[in-house]
Amino acid sequence: MTELSKYTSFHVGGPAQKILQVSTQEEIIAAIESAGDSPVLILGGGTNVLVSDAGFEGTVIRISNNSVESEVDACSGATLTIGAGENWDNFVLTTIKRGFAGLETLSGIPGTVGAAPIQNIGAYGHEVSEFITRVRTYDREKKEIKTFTNAECEFSYRSSHFKAHPGRYVVLDVAFQLRIGEMTTSITYLELAKKLQIDIGDKALVTNCREAVLELRANKGMLLSAEDKDSWSAGSFFTNPIISQQAADALPNAAPKWPLNDGRVKVSAAWLIENSGIHKGDEIGGARISTKHVLALTNSGTATASDIAALAKRARDHVQQAFGITLVAEVNLIGVEI
Question: FAD-binding PCMH-type domain location, by residue (predicted)?
């Protein structure tokens, strides 16, 4: 049996009972139906998953379709329909080269287009939900194709209708609406504005924004590299907690806080971890807190999934004890608990 460590950015994961490689809609649906009632794991880039050392007792389906359809109008912009298996950052780069704007702050995020709406990926002031017009899926329960409008996707911070119903919907393709232009919208994220050497609220060239985002991500160990084991991770392991205003007021003034429209407050998971007694470079077995960014748990070369889970549990427990806040994993845990 094939070890799933070959297909994950953590480079961990035990054997798969069955692996199917598919590229067309027909192949995707046929692979799902061939699995019957047994568990199915959809694996795109393998960049947001921690798979147990025991592996996966079911069918692993690797989607690599990269169909692209586009309609461009000088007034309304571009509507792009992208297959679920397309590499996300390759897609972002293609949009910029074609003169479209919108996705530049989401540059460098690992994974596939199909995973983007499930997690509602986001970075540097924007989320992918801002640009999605519809998501076409295969409903495993009803055994039919189901298309979701943006509203029906029920997007929220790092979540969606698909994430709330794990295993039911398999994304086939995603449609995006982008505008035509060389300039970004107003930059609202302070770290990015400083990198671009502009003021908050100013705009920048889309190409310059992408370059700045990639540099920021690289400095945090958030760009995957086969040679750099400090990047053998799934990016940010935890989401930024969203807490009540009262709980936010109880945190030190130095803690980064972002008020939300519903009265709650988003706080920095990285700050909580760093100020709970966890440090860059901390290790359990072969698992290590990245030397570049505490939100990235990495495989130093010899880690097992159990090592990474134990390190994640240590970080979560330290934050709970120090601040009374429970961190939630952004990474999908397959046969693993923390």
Answer: 12-181
Question: Is 158 a catalytic site residue?
Answer: yes
DSSP string, 16-43: EEEEEEE-SHHHHHHHHHHTTTS-EEEE
Residue 170 token pair:
């398999």
CATH 3.20.20.70 fits 4-63, yes or no: no
Q: Which of 62, 134, 140, 158 is catalytic?
A: 158
229-334: CATH topology is 3.90.78
- Say whether pLDDT at 86 is over 80: yes
CATH value of 68-217 in 1.20.1080.10, 3.30.465.10, 3.40.50.1100, 3.30.530.20: 3.30.465.10
Strand partners, 77: 73
Q: Which of 49, 38, 48 is nearest to 14 (CA)?
A: 49
**Residue 16 pairs with which residues in a beta bridge?**
56
The SS3 assignment for 150 reads coil
pLDDT band (50, 70, 90) for residue 222: confident
Mean pLDDT over each residue of the chain, to the nearest integer = 94
Residue 258, CA atoms < 13 Å, CB-side half-sphere: 14
Which phi and psi (to 5°) does residue 56 adopt? -130, 120
Q: How confident is the model at residue 77 (pLDDT cuts 50, 70, 90)?
A: confident
Q: Is 236 a catalytic residue?
A: yes
Catalytic residue among 86, 104, 127, 330: 330
Tokens of 53: 């050392």
Does residue 69 carry a catalytic annotation? no
Alpha carbons 288 and 127: distance in angstroms, whole number: 28
Query: 277: which 2 tokens?
Result: 């007694």
**Tens of pLDDT, residues 116-170:** 999 999 999 999 999 999 999 999 999 999 999 999 999 999 999 999 999 899 9
Out of 5, 236, 276, 290, the active site residue is 236
CA distances 329 to 5, 123, 139, 222, 313, Å, are 20, 17, 26, 16, 10
